[in-house]
Prior knowledge:
Elements lengths: L15 E5 L3 H13 L3 E5 L2 H11 L3 E5 L6 H12 L4 E6 L12 E4 L4 H11 L1
Parallel strand pairs: 1-2, 1-3, 3-4, 4-5
Helix pairs in contact: 2-3
Amino acid sequence: MFSIDVQVGKSSPARLAVVADTDLEQRTAVSRQLEALGFTVAQASDGYEALSIIGEREPGIALLRSHAESDDGERIAALARMLYPRTRIIMTTGPADARTGDDAFTVLTLPADARGLDRCLLEAA
């Protein structure tokens, strides 16, 4: 006898994204844009919660918030990259926290438009 176990309804990790941001409106807006592109999205209120989700669900993409006043976002992103190398990391930042072009991660400035998100998804690939 031959059988195959298939989990129906479970999304492919490549089409799963995690969006972490303390700002609920920003998190929801980015999540909606990703869902419009066909992603299943898990939301996290901060980077530590996102790390937990990344470890459990192994998403293809994680969008983690970076703030100028704290380097927690970069630390969490570096840890995520080290522990979960198959998850592509995109840092999100507000206009006030904008960076120069020397970032170690792809950066998406919020509020994001569809072209900006598409660019980041391509760069992170």
